Amino acid sequence: MEALTTLKSLIVVLSLYFNPVTPYEDNVTTTNLPRDIAEDAALTTVGLIFKYGFPVEKYNVTTQDGYVLEVHRIPKPGKQPVLLQHGFLDSSATFVLMGPDKGLAYILSQQGYDVWLGNSRGNRYSRKHVNISADDERFWKFSWHEMGVYDLPAVIDFILRKSDFPKLHYIGHSQGTTSFFVMCSQRPNYNSKILLMQAFAPVVYFFNVRTPFKTLLKNSLDTMSFASSTLGLYELLPNLKRLSNFSQTACWEHVQTHKYCSNLLFILAGYNEPQMNMTMLPVVYGHIPAGASIMQLIHYGQILKSGVFQQYDYGRLANFLRYRTFEPPRYNLSRVTAPVILHYADNDYLSAPEDVETLAKQLPGIVSKRMVPMRRFNHIDFIWGINSKELLYSHVISNMKKIELGR
């Protein structure tokens, strides 16, 4: 029954996606939705922040290897900076799209923080390079390894220079935790620039992943690698105008197909319908997927298959030429000395409690780990859950205040 639900949801959500499309346009609206919902589905992150009356700034940050990342800010000059980093196929919008009362970025701003929102290379806001076009296959030759080695360090250095602070708070969701642990293991000097790292649904180990896509991903690695290298399929699910239009019709709670939109999220993340604001589904699908490299997905698949948190596996010969070893080097988590708090959930299909425990034992800088006290809390509730403010964000802010006071 679950397999049938998975298949139906995929067919409905992706049927229009793979038709001929045009690039996403920021002013897409339709008339079949309430005006605010249609507008929020179409606005950019900057547009959303401005609409709800918060100050907003936009910066371009260039990485050491030439990628141009768009960084968003809800400024409070002179206040402690905090960097929020999104997950796979997501963007900075994830922290604001639920509105001022529910969005973590707004809540932190209201608490007096200088809030910065990152965008990983390849998503809708970071599709530029100083020398290479996003239409060039070479642009997409990256995984979350490069995000940890190049993207996060560049953004962190930019924020600290701009704010004139020696350290910042870091909050990452899903892939935003993976890239952080890569950064601190590969470039350990960045540990000293982190006041406190709080991980939402940390993704490092996959021994206990429960999503039905686990087997599909593990068994499709060779196919995906072939498609990427031979067929030139290197960009994964970019943000497109047709999908945005679809989200504003098929995902509206007053049409029958909206259940497939929610089911697809639940199949990936864990079922918890009471925490999903169904009215906001068109907004969610207006902003995700936000685009990625297929190598990011392949890299996760490799970790799933091998059970080892290691660098990208290019094949034995290519590995030897790149790493001087036939197997990819492992990430040394003993070098992650920054203070870390792990937030996890019992019903998270992608970040199981057992896997979080495995990670926690390897982090010398771990301060604590906390399971969100709701049995059905899932992977996406960390960012969009109706009660996340009370169940999670209040504790996150308390942790930040405590470490600032040296407790």
TrEMBL record:
Record carries keyword Glycoprotein: yes
Endpoints of the signal sequence: 1-23
Protein name: Lipase
Active site (catalytic residues): S174 (nucleophile), D348 (charge relay system), H379 (charge relay system)
Swiss-Prot/TrEMBL keywords: Glycoprotein, Hydrolase, Lipid degradation, Lipid metabolism, Signal
GO molecular function: hydrolase activity, acting on ester bonds
InterPro entries: AB_hydrolase_fold, AB_hydrolase_lipase, Lipase_euk
Lineage, highest ranks first: Eukaryota, Metazoa, Ecdysozoa, Arthropoda, Hexapoda
One of the protein's GO biological processes: lipid catabolic process
Cell cycle among keywords: no
